[in-house]
Amino acid sequence: MLLGVGNRHWSASLLLLAVVVLASAASTAGEPLRVAAAISLKEVLTATVESFAAQTGVEVELVFGSSGQLLAQVRSGAPVDVFISAAAEQADALERDGLALAGSRRTIAGNRLVLIAPVEQSAQLDSFTALTEPSLRRLAIGEPATVPAGRYAAQVLDKLGLTERLEGRLIYGSNVRQVLAYVERGEVTAGIVYASDTRAASAAVRVVAMADPDWHDPIDYPALIVQTTRQAERATQFLHHLTGDEARQALSERGFTLPPRPDESTLSDARLPDAPHPQSADKRRDGTSGVGAAR
Amino acid sequence: MSPLGLSLTISTAATVLVTLVAVPLAFVLARARFVGKSAVETLLTLPLVLPPTVVGYFLVTALGARGWVGRWLREAFDYSILFRIEGAVLAAAIVSFPLLYLPAKAAFANVSRELEDLAALLGAGRVRVFWHVSLPIARRGILGGQALAFARALGEFGATVMVFGWQPGRLTMPISIYSAYEQGNVAQALPTALLMTVICFVLLGILNRAMSRRPA
Description:
The structure holds 2 protein chains of 2 kinds. By secondary structure, chain A is of the alpha/beta class. Chain A has helices spanning 2-26, 42-56, 67-75, 88-96, 148-159, 176-184, 232-242, 245-253, 264-267, 278-283, and strands spanning 33-38, 60-65, 82-84, 106-110, 113-118, 139-142, 170-173, 190-194, 205-210, 220-225. Chain A is globular, with a radius of gyration of 22 Å. The N and C termini of chain A lie far apart (61 Å). The model of chain A is unreliable at 1-6 and 267-295 (pLDDT under 50). The longest helix of chain B is centred in the middle third of the chain and has 29 residues, at 126-154. Chain A binds chain B through residues 66, 68-69, 71-72, 75, 118, 138, 143, 145-146, 167-168, 170-174, 185-187, 294, and chain B through 64-66, 80, 82-83, 165-169, 179, 181-184.
């Protein structure tokens, strides 16, 4: 008897659940625009999204992580409308898989790589080459296969011939902000992050040196619209906002470098999702994509 | 070291550590009566239900460079347990502690008091009674607990990844599976996942057989 009541109760709630799920799937009107972005963009995007919502009434839901993590999520079907990576590599991969809306790719920002250390224990450390000093216990970098900052950092270490000498002393962060946190908490002797990350850092972090941009691949932040989006128009609007004056100023204030101003004629390419331009994806391959496949 | 080698090393060390602490504690607490005993026992079995990330959180905040123990360790000995194999062993040991403590306590509780009293009457000291009477009788429960604790330590992920971190060339088996997932190479994790399944299957099989046999 009791069981019977319980069962009926359950099927009623299941039915209700199904109705709710179906109803929410059917309408996209109230759905926010979902943006998956490299975690180094956290503060600047949070601010930009607010001004975007104020101007257009479009709510944006942000998801942050390492570019590699986010790429894996988009590949496995996560409901994402816009993907912003911290390297050309992940954007290229998305395009290769046919998961990017053709012609939607825009470079929204650039960055520099810096060597940082905890304030209280870094007296000797004054350059990248000083990383081989025996007093350097541990160097934190992003995990190179999934974290672009880690990949750039590994390239710097390779270029300076430090990789082998640092064996056994590297700690991987699962994203660039974890590297920053390790340094902030004084758990490692040094870390390699973006120049923009140090703006978000506490006073416990000291910038030791800035990497020469020639030591690593160009740091670009490509943004693209995910092919499965049902909100291509609003996504295009958002990308337009990201390449606009206001966002550019916010980016530059937070330590990002700025790409050349976008050409307005290419911006219209992505307007029509049902009329893709297959050639425009290749057009964007401008030498920034020379990153090899993940090791 | 390979993920298999590293994981086996950590879990073996953790099981030894847990045995050294949990078995004597279980022996004492199976008999002792004092105020607050139930609170102590609850605390000892807490890791059974506590999320490993909570264990990891406490370890990192206490033993990290800015933690109250960690700061002292660094100033006094220039030592930090984070990112070291000792850290991974400690994390695995805490999480697997109740899995040996509980069966060991049950086994000691089942040892007849008369046998212990008889041994004492014949002139054996308390330590001797423990070694030659209680421990041999309780050994089956202890061995079963060790198998469980070892299996749990082998699979430890949450606390370990916080304390030991993600180090190139030094991945435990569970961390290597997660790392493959993060890199989008789920297929790469298959051999490790299968190997862990087989190891745990064998461990549980041994445990079940040992438990089902009637005590001698």
